[in-house]
Amino acid sequence: MKLTTSGKAKLDSKDKKIIEQLQKNCRQSVSRIAKATKLPRDVVVYRIKKLEQSKVISGHHSYINPAKIGYPLYSFVLFQCYNLKPEVEGRFISYLVAHKNLAYVAKNSGEFDFTIGVCAKDYLEFDEILRQIRQRFVDVIKDIKITPVIEEYKIYQMSELI
Questions:
Q1: How far apart are CA 26 and CA 9, in angstroms?
Q2: Against a cut of 0.90, is the pTM above it?
Q3: Strand 2-3 relative to strand 9-10: parallel, antiparallel, unpaired?
């Protein structure tokens, strides 16, 4: 893996094979990755470290099924905001990130300014979470749109882009 003058990572086929294996199962052993990629173990370790240092790999995650841990209601909520000043936007983002029931927080471009993923035990809890956010940021939130997640089919699989 090399960085171009623009800072973009230039990945070769070995890097791609390693990333594909990590996306299939980030908990598998280095030995197993080495066997699957037909690369020496030391090469796999070295390349993973380089991919992490260059921020191509920003973390290793486990995807948890919210329903299996008592949160069967998972919805994306999109917020359309009034023209936010940086300090107000910072407080809004900090609140969202710190909220225990929010599994996802993103700033968007387009019609909606933010998207959150809300995990709730039932509709009453979901409604209470949104009510608290709306009351706390009544001068920030212009409109919301709710899109319940029924089933997920693909989550952050980006190795095909390499």
A1: 21
A2: no
A3: antiparallel
